[in-house]
Amino acid sequence: MPRSTITTPLTLGAVALGTLATLGLSGCSALGDVAHDRVTSEAATRADLDAAPDWLPADARDITSVAGTGGKASDTTPTTLVFTSADGVTEDSCSTAPRQSAPTMDVEDAPDVYGATEVLRCGPWSMTSKGDRWIAWTPNPGDGGS
């Protein structure tokens, strides 16, 4: 009898540990998102997005979006969008401005915004690129946006 009492908790503990290890390997992004108050989404193309900013090029692909979920209440959720586009951002309502802001949400393998002296500003979004790889972020205080 005592043996089954000891075995059951150990067995359940081993199963729980195995489950956590599996989640850790397969869901690192999801666990990291929870720990860092953010939501990461990926889309193969612009057409795969539920909602896309007007300035996002039609040929945008390999899109990663990281949006904040915690923090202070505001009209603008901190969001960083990284994508590849050969056409680039050509929206008429966008203009260049000296870079004064930087993304608050990090995305792995994004272009380095700190090397940019100017950004393209499209309303509450600022963006820069390295080759055909773009990074855009909001809010953009100091760049003339939000």
TrEMBL record:
Q: Which domain of life is it from?
A: Bacteria
Q: Which PROSITE patterns match?
A: PROKAR_LIPOPROTEIN
Q: In its UniProt entry, what is this protein called?
A: Secreted protein
What organism does this protein naturally occur in?
Curtobacterium subtropicum
Q: What is the lineage of its organism?
A: Bacteria, Bacillati, Actinomycetota, Actinomycetes, Micrococcales
